Amino acid sequence: MRARYGIPLKTTAAITAIGAAGIAYAAGFEARSFRLRRVTVPVLPSGARPLRVLQVSDIHMVGGQRKKRAWLQSLAGLRPDFVVNTGDNLSDPEGVPEVLDALGPLMDFPGVYVFGSNDYYGPKLRNPARYLLEKVQGKHGLNGNPPAVGVVHNPWEELRDAFDAAGWVGLSNTRGRLKLEGGFELAFTGLDDPHIKRDRYAKVEGGPEKDADLSIAVVHAPYLRSLDAFTADGYPLVLAGHTHGGQLCVPFYGALVTNCDLDTDRVKGLSTHEAGGNRAYLHVSAGCGTNRYTPVRFACPPEATLLTLMPRA
Q1: 61, β-bridge pairs
Q2: CA–CA separation, 222 vs 193, rounded Å?
């Protein structure tokens, strides 16, 4: 007779309790434990005064998220020189008024923005294991797949109109400029979201603008084709979001996925990227929200980033 081996009832209960506690922590505490990341980037011309840049990303606003709204509003107290919004503001078609309420105090500062897939389309319920499967298969987003069909269309035009009315500069497959106090002039080159194949680099190619004091590249999802193009063209700094920092990470190991073809070592924070004989600084925001169907974070708190741009050594 074949022996039967089972897991003792007490062990099963303990494992279940640990799992439930982990989910409760990830959803009830860490997903609302907002942080500010601070980094310094040496990209300014010699003699320029430091510039404070606030990057917000992946808000994924859902109705009733009062703590997130209050935290975003409080960031205006940092008094940044300008704001960069790297997209995915929405996770609810009814969320536009709450996004604008959250960002209202920040819209008093100069700013630029790009959109992400969740600004255009409502999220779908997905098995989180699909992200691991897509990583193994080398498939990400809609790359090589048909366009999105049968999805909720978000009112992104309302966001665009409000941002534009506040003086923020839209950068979806286009260029734009900000002139700061003291006459410092920034040039920006942006792409629409590569995750849903809306990026059109041919429309903006050509590299930094020679008559600007600094040129910065902006994109929602840090796909390698976009990073390669920006870096090869000579941009010193690229700002992106999208990855959620991995969202569900393993303590003392890090992220398992990036939801794009960027390696997990650069899933969040400041790093570098090389292409075409050039090197650029890359900052990827882990964002401050989650997909509404997976409202959890583990070993990856929600964040915004205050980047201090300094003169090159």
Answers
A1: 90
A2: 9
Length of the chain as a residue count: 313
Hey, what amino acid is at 258? T
Q: Which token pair is 224?
A: 């390698």
E-state strands within the chain: 35-44, 51-56, 82-85, 111-113, 169-170, 174-179, 185-190, 214-218, 237-240, 269-275, 278-284, 303-311
Q: What number of other Cβ atoms are within 10 A of residue 278's Cβ?
A: 16
The reported pTM is 0.90
Distance CA 233, CA 239 (A): 15
The 10 Å Cβ neighbour count of residue 144 is: 9
| CA-based nearest residue to 119, from 201, 190, 58, 69 | 58
Per-residue pLDDT of the chain (313 residues), as tens digits, is 444 445 565 544 433 343 434 444 554 567 889 999 999 999 999 999 999 999 999 999 999 999 999 999 999 999 999 999 999 999 999 999 999 999 999 999 999 999 999 999 988 777 777 777 787 787 787 654 555 677 889 999 999 999 999 999 999 999 999 999 999 999 999 999 999 999 999 999 999 999 999 999 999 999 999 999 999 999 999 999 999 999 999 999 999 999 999 999 999 999 999 999 999 999 999 999 998 999 999 999 999 999 999 999 8
CA distance 232 to 300: 31
